[in-house]
Amino acid sequence: MPINPIHLRAFHAVAAEGSFVRAAARLGVSQPTLSEQVRTLEQTHQVLLFDRRGRRTELTAVGERLHEITRRMSDLAAEAERCLQDAAGLHVGQLHIAADSPGYAMPLLAALAEAYPGIRTSLSTGNAAKVLADLYAYRADVAYVCDVEPDPRLVSWPLFHTSVVAVVGAGHAWSGRTTIDAADLVRCRLVTREPGSITRKVFRRELQRAGLTATDVLEVDSREAVMAAARVGVGVGLVAEDELPEDSSLTRLRIEPFDLTITEYLACLVERREFTVIRTACDLALRIA
């Protein structure tokens, strides 16, 4: 028969205090109530746990064995409480960050390591669709993600603004220019990210508004691949401007007359916003942005 935890707690208090009176005061219950709980435990399991001799209360052999167990249980409960207190105080814990561009997340990772060395952090990257999917599936606690659509499940804060630009290698005919007309751009082979990428989504949206169509498109799976293809002349790359390295082998071109602005957001789930480690990370990220 399962042990009633209230009866077990009553037994442990009496065993630890050596007195029903002191145990009742410790637990904040009346002595008759406490005595009844211990008696019920004994009767339910057909054992004698205490040898009651007048005002003296001594453990029987079975009571001694049970007290060894409840003492360990009490120690484990205290350890669990310390664990939760440490987590609430950010002495221990873990935080998973997802980002559609790792550069955005690095200052937060550095700030967390300095301020809360007991928090273990990890970072995963992917396009905006993957980052949001990780957030919704609880695989990420906090996310850096572009152009977040309104969603009651999310709380988000705008952090940075950038723009989609075209990039070409040093030997390209456009390498001496700073702008390019969209009508000229779509006549070239374009190198873009996969579906789910915000740079691709924003560019295609402006193409549709302008009534233009890109017919020669090479799709790759990372911004690094886009830049590598542009660098060697495979095509004209489309990337977020602030993701470009200080690299003289690439020329950035603003695409006219398009508005290709992208906003980077910090986001987390509304239902998890008040978790101590998530709230602290978001507050820290907003302060250092």
Describe it.
With 289 residues, this protein is α/β, with parallel strands linked by helices. The chain has three domains: 84 residues, Winged helix-like DNA-binding domain superfamily/Winged helix DNA-binding domain (Arc Repressor Mutant, subunit A, Orthogonal Bundle), CATH 1.10.10; 91 residues, 3-Layer(aba) Sandwich (D-Maltodextrin-Binding Protein, domain 2), CATH 3.40.190; 103 residues, D-Maltodextrin-Binding Protein, domain 2 (3-Layer(aba) Sandwich), CATH 3.40.190. The chain is 44% helix and 25% strand. The strands form two sheets. Strands 3, 4, 5, 6, 7, 8, 9, 10, 11 and 12 form a ten-stranded mixed β-sheet that branches. It has a two-stranded antiparallel ribbon with strand order 1-2. β8, α8 and β9 form a beta-alpha-beta unit. α1 packs across α2 and α2 packs across α3. The chain is rod-shaped, with a radius of gyration of 32 Å. The two termini are 58 Å apart.
